[in-house]
Design brief:
By secondary structure, the chain is of the alpha/beta class. Helices cover about 40% and strands about 15% of the residues. The longest helix is centred in the last third of the chain and has 18 residues, at about 220-235.
């Protein structure tokens, strides 16, 4: 069984840049937000063990079985966001305890403004930190140890150090050549392309933060989102490497 590694994140956390780095490696099968697609579309195609034929998963349980089958032939990396709650995973943490779980979080002050800029109808639960924390606690309880956590700010500031530590923790060789890449659109991003324009234009991890006209400091709704989610962010971020 090869490693099956999850990176759990909230939207606007620089997680797509992490995906781009994993694609650049070329030695790992990469799945981009399959549970999000499953929730919104009712099914998701998961490559088979050979990498050729695909399997249609119509439930979280079927998805986990398909990913486990992928892992029989090669390492698998799955990036997922918690715009939705995935009840089967929460209710059956023992089903995912044998997999590798890592988390990526970014200060909600930036993430909330960025999320609102793309989706002005965003609701408080969709911001994701509360759901992320619920999953974090479930995995911790099932495995007996807290999952590895990355802060986006440090990842963007010190990508080589952070990625090297992440690779060591999940059992992959560190590939410094994968920290830079050519700007590129990707077929796996097409369904939600508007969310990934920064990653499409990127050439590596960048520490430059965008500014937004509507923020948690000048909008009462966004401030309420921030006040609700910040405690969950803190509880996860205190375990960051």
């Amino acid at each position: 069984m090869r490693p099956v590694i999850f990176l759990w994140a909230h939207s606007r956390s620089a997680s797509t840049a992490f995906v781009r780095m994993m694609i650049e490696r070329g030695d790992v099968a990469v799945l981009h937000e399959p549970l999000l697609a499953l929730t919104e579309e009712g099914c998701v195609a998961v490559p088979g063990a050979t990498g050729r034929d695909s399997v249609l998963a119509r439930s979280e349980q079927e998805f986990l079985l398909a990913v486990a089958e992928m892992g029989r032939s090669r390492p698998v990396f799955v990036k997922e966001v918690l715009d939705y709650r995935y009840p089967y995973l929460i209710d059956h943490p023992e089903q995912i305890a044998r997999l590798s779980h890592t988390f990526l979080v970014r200060d909600p002050r930036h993430a909330i403004s960025s999320h609102y800029a793309i989706k002005p109808t965003v609701t408080c639960p969709e911001i994701g930190y509360e759901r992320l924390h619920e999953l974090f606690e479930a995995i911790w309880s099932a495995t007996g140890r807290p999952p590895l956590v990355i802060r986006a700010e440090r990842l963007l500031r010190e990508p080589a150090r952070v990625v090297a530590a992440w690779c060591e923790a999940v059992g992959l060789p560190f590939r410094p050549d994968a920290l830079t890449w050519s700007p590129q659109d990707r077929p796996e991003w097409q369904r939600t392309r508007a969310w990934h324009l920064d990653a499409i234009r990127s050439t590596g991890f960048s520490g430059c933060a965008s500014s937004y006209p509507v923020t948690v400091d000048n909008n009462a709704t966004l401030r309420s989102f921030y006040d609700h989610h910040y405690p969950f962010y803190e509880r996860i971020a205190q375990h960051a490497i």
